[in-house]
DNA sequence: CCTCGACGATCAAGAGTCGCATGGGACCCA
DNA sequence: TGGGTCCCATGCGACTCTTGATCGTCGAGG
């Protein structure tokens, strides 16, 4: 799961990024509206956190522009409660939720999770089952049969991405894009390392290598 | 995925081509607008990268000409930020996105991927069935009746191309262009080798040889 | 009907690429 | 300082791709 934070207060942006990274999300931060718009439309995010007061384009306009272009990723707006901007207006322009500053970090994480869950809840629960593998994306827990597996944050993210596209071949480049953030420029070998770890902690034949194409999470046919 | 780069600065063109090839794209380069127009209309590309300042026809005119002819492949424009040309104008002539020079290589790749992704999102169901042959392009799996066949990456690509044009005669040159890239200068015999492998792994009469013309995937049983 | 030439099929081997395992180092947090 | 996570580098092993040689087949024209 990859998030974009558009926030010009650098201290706040940094602390949010840090916390959300620790939760296991890949997080990118940009500091003005124009760049936020560019980035959101060119990189694959699962959620955008958007401040309203921004240099360049303000949050409302970024949000409206994204929605006008058919962008359907959830947007969480951050508003300062000083009267100049109104929360309701945020929802009018197409935001999915808003938070009024100051807010506690715990609340933010809860809202983020709720939005991500709601999105997938178009008929599906946040728990995915494939054969004897069970993945709870909300709680970030994994079971194989009765046994719970202890995964690190990155391991879980890689598995999550494979589970969301179970049965399909997912290329290493694709996994890199979704699980790592914009700043990452390293070797795709890193994906192999994590797949290897998942096979060791779960079951070797769960993730199938498709040589020259990527990996595929086997579904029970 | 096949890309066309229309760019007269040879150093830049070469370095882009090199990088994008490393990303797994088949890349062709031409150096002037007239040739770009010709190539784009005569070869099947998935995306065109188009510089604005070009000898012959400039990028705007190439882009406008393509769009006027109903050409709907995504176009990414490259603009030099020296005031003479304006980014907005590029979008007006029908480009899908633009990048201002100088840009980082990483950003270019991100934009290319975004454009290809946006396009693919509109795509159709990835499972093709012809008689007892079933090809799932997303999962990269192939069945013949109940039996699944194990194909290598190249074998699958060749089959995929034949399936997309099932019933038609596809020339060896055409297969070479799509599965290998335009600049491939090897022996066309390589196609025969792969067709041979497909017949062995699937069924001999599935791919019919049309002497002097190419191959045809049989649709009727 | 036979012969010849062109085209296509098949095979085997070397070169090249891809994926895996492993260990070490950087970094972070307690 | 110590444990854990994350990332990188290396070398090995296995598979894939490609090439070139050889054999088979088709069809036209004598």
Query: How many separate structural domains of chain A?
Result: 2
Strand order of the largest sheet of chain A: 2-1-3-4-5
The arrangement of helices and strands of chain A along the chain is: EHEHEHEHEHEEEEHEHHEE
* Strand percentage of chain A: 15-25%
Percent of residues of chain A in helical segments? Answer: 25-40%
CATH class of the largest domain in chain A: Alpha Beta
- Please tell me how large the radius of gyration of chain A is: 18 Å
- Class by alpha and beta content of chain A: alpha/beta
* Shape, per Cα inertia axes of chain A: elongated
Span of the ends, CA to CA of chain A: 27 Å
Average pLDDT over all residues of chain A:
86
Look at the structure and name the CATH superfamily of the largest domain in chain A: Response regulator
Largest interface: A-B, 16 and 17 residues
Instruction: State the helix count of chain A.
Output: 8
In the CATH hierarchy, the architecture of the largest domain in chain A is 3-Layer(aba) Sandwich
Give the helices and strands, then pairings.
2 copies of one chain form a homodimer.
Chain A lengths: L1 E5 L3 H13 L3 E5 L2 H10 L4 E5 L7 H10 L6 E6 L6 H6 L4 E5 L3 H16 L6 E4 L2 E4 L4 E4 L2 E3 L3 H12 L4 E2 L1 H8 L9 H13 L5 E4 L3 E4 L4
Parallel strand pairs in A: 1-2, 1-3, 3-4, 4-5
Antiparallel strand pairs in A: 6-7, 7-8, 8-9, 10-12, 11-12
Helix pairs in contact in A: 2-3, 6-8
Chain B binds a DNA duplex (30 and 30 nucleotides) through helix 8.
């Amino acid at each position: 799961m990859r998030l974009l934070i558009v926030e010009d207060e650098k201290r706040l942006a940094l602390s949010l990024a840090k916390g959300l990274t620790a939760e296991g999300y890949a997080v990118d931060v940009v500091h003005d509206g124009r760049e936020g718009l560019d980035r959101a439309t060119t990189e694959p995010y699962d959620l955008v956190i958007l401040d309203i007061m921004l240099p360049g384009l303000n949050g409302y306009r970024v949000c409206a522009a994204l929605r006008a272009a058919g962008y359907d990723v959830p947007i969480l707006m951050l508003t300062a409660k000083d009267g100049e901007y109104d929360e309701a207006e945020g929802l009018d322009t197409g935001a999915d939720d808003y938070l009024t500053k100051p807010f506690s970090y715990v609340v933010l994480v809860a809202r983020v999770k709720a939005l991500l869950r709601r999105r997938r809840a178009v008929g599906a629960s946040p728990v995915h089952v494939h054969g004897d593998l069970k993945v709870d994306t909300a709680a970030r827990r994994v079971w194989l049969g009765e046994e719970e597996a202890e995964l690190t944050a990155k391991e879980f993210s890689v598995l999550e991405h494979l589970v969301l596209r179970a049965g399909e071949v997912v290329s290493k480049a694709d996994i890199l894009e979704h699980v790592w953030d914009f700043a990452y420029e390293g070797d795709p070998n890193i994906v192999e390392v994590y797949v290897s770890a998942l096979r060791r902690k779960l079951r070797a034949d769960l993730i199938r290598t498709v040589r020259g194409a990527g990996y595929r999470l086997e579904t029970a046919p």
